[in-house]
Amino acid sequence: TWRVWAIYVVFAANLSKQQALKEACPSCDAAQLCNCSSMGLDSIPPELTAKITVLNLAHNRIKHIQSQDLQQAVNLRALLLQSNKISSIEEDSFQSLVKLELLDLSNNSLAHLSPLWFGHLFSLQHLHLQGNFYRDLGESSPFSSLRNLSSLHLGNPRFSVIRRENFEGIERLNKLWIDGRNLSQYEPGSLKLIKKINHMIINLSNSNVFSEIVRDLLYSVTWLEVRQIKLAVETKSMVQNSTPPFRIQKLTFKHAFFTDQSVSRIIVLLKGITSLRELEAIDCVLEGKGIWDTKEITLSGQSFVETVSVINIMIQNFYLFFDLFGMESQINKLKRLTIASSKVFMVPCSLAKHFLSLLYLDFNDNLLVNNRLDETICEGAWPSLQTLNLSQNSLKSLKDTAKYISRLPKLNNLDVSQNNFGEIPDVCEWPKNLKYLNLSSTQIPKVTTCIPSTLEVLDVSANNLKEFGLQLPFLRELYLTKNQLKTLPGAAPIPNLVAMSVRRNKLNSFSKDEFYICDSPLAVRGAQVGAVHLSLMECHRSLVVSLICILVFLVILILVAIGHKYHVVWYLRMTWAWLRAKRKPKRAPPKDICYDAFVSYSENDSNWVENIMVQELEQACPPFRLCLHKRDFVPGKWIVDNIIDSIEKSHKTLFVLSEHFVQSEWCKYELDFSHFRLFDENNDAVILVLLEPIQSKAIPKRFCKLRKIMNTKTYLEWPLEEHQQQIFWENLKGALKS
Prior knowledge:
Elements: H1 2-24, E1 33-35, E2 54-56, E3 64-65, E4 78-80, E5 88-89, E6 102-104, E7 126-128, E8 151-155, E9 161-162, E10 172-180, E11 185-186, E12 196-204, H2 207-217, E13 221-227, E14 250-254, E15 257-259, H3 260-270, E16 278-282, E17 285-287, H4 294-299, E18 307-311, E19 314-315, E20 336-340, H5 349-352, E21 360-362, H6 370-376, E22 387-389, H7 398-405, E23 413-415, E24 436-438, E25 457-459, E26 477-479, E27 499-501, H8 512-515, H9 536-539, H10 541-565, H11 568-582, E28 595-600, H12 606-618, E29 626-628, H13 629-632, H14 639-648, E30 650-657, H15 659-663, H16 665-678, E31 686-690, H17 704-712, E32 716-717, H18 722-737
Parallel strand pairs: 1-2, 2-4, 3-5, 4-6, 6-7, 7-8, 8-10, 9-11, 10-12, 12-13, 13-14, 14-16, 15-17, 16-18, 17-19, 18-20, 20-21, 21-22, 22-23, 23-24, 24-25, 25-26, 26-27, 28-29, 28-30, 30-31, 31-32
């Protein structure tokens, strides 16, 4: 009864633990995910079990984490504690979480970081510590044991100091984000300890710290994103005493503040970073009129940047902005340019003509109008341009727009969507190589032959189209979403169509005469589907080819299986060995005989052969010379050649037969590759020693010669009685001498 009572007590205890957890956090599910966020918890729920893998305690009122709180949650993979009021964590609180991969302690009240918290988090990949109260990371590195760390988020408005030792132990990061908006002290070399960072984001306001950090990141960061910085007129080089090659390829400024003077200087300084290929400015403010020091910029040499993106830049009094005269030498190598949501209303023709290498131009969401477009796309401007985005501007005339764009000889991709054209002419002039055209949301009421016949992709979604009947022989994709279509377009005018989107229209009927037309095979193109009768092969050629391939594969598989079962490879190798052996004389010249006998035996019988028979024969008077594969075969030589050569150089061949011999793969090959030459009707070069009785059925059927010789010729049988063994040795020696 006491055992029953003990079991009951344990069961009741476990049940009470589960009940306590369920009461504190009722949303734990069968998938071991516990979502306890926004539940007003003051502490971590009690009795967490090893079953839990994800624990979400975000947006509560937790203030302290104690040693025993997470002690049992040994299988935890993700622990979310952001947006609480955590001010203290006992040093061994996370000691049992060796499988933890994500730890989020952001937006709490931690005044310092302890390396002991993270000492046992060997699997940790993502650590979020931003938005706390700590002013620095301590005198040493809190992260020295986190060898698998992939992303690290840290810093806060009070964070002001980075020391040289703070990042020891971290070698590689996919993402590093530092909120250092009030960072005032940075010890040079601090970030150099991290050998590779794919993407680094840093909030900075101190321009001097920015230059020092860039110098430390030249060899480690691929993409550097700087936020909230107010760039001053820097005089020191960003690559001071550093030599290429550098790693940094992309630099992004976000929510930054520039002046004409700082822009001029940053353009000059960035030229020193010879690896830089992409430059971005997003949601930035430029205070100035574009009066840049073009002389200094020109004298500083050619820029290596190939891609420039300016998105939503705020320029006070933008209408007074200068035309960037003097910048021509800096833009002729540029390949991709995006200036979006920035109130651009024109580009001077003199400047546009110098974009000699530009392939991609994006003017989305600006103030371009038709009469200014004539200046922006003048004759000779943008000579290499292939892709142009003029969507969401103020263009009104599709005819004029097409006319100006036709001046771009290499253009093949054009987006003029979200311009209010309203009307569409019957005839338009377009670039000869235009393949892609986006006219969606342009308020055109119909489609006409204004649309070029060279198109492969056409988007006329979100217009007022009631029908579509254009002849577009090369069109492969057609987008007609959100129109007023009542019938589908005819198939004959667009014979190469592969994809068509007609969602959100008013389709109520299909034109059988136009839509159900055969497109392929070529022999029946244009014929009615109902009048065509094709064979299975013609209708489902790919399916038939697939089936044939499968059948061929199965046949090959069956042949391989049969070959394996019936030893086809063995027969092929035997045939090759036999053909080679037949070309040689049956008997080697006496001068080439090196051994009295070649011994063929199973490895399982090696004790008897090597310790009894060899000792008896090689120590006889006179001694016999025996050839053993283990001792006398030439290393590296094909085993077949070794066997044939050894047999030819031996006066006799001695087979030590046993159950092991006929079951041994090695002996099978040895016997197989020798019996063509040895088992002739009148050949007496073979001596058979029967080490133990062998059942006739135990001998493989393909050894028919061996069966025949055992049935027709005398063999020596090893006696177990000691007094008969001397007679055996005398008979064997006599056979070897004959």
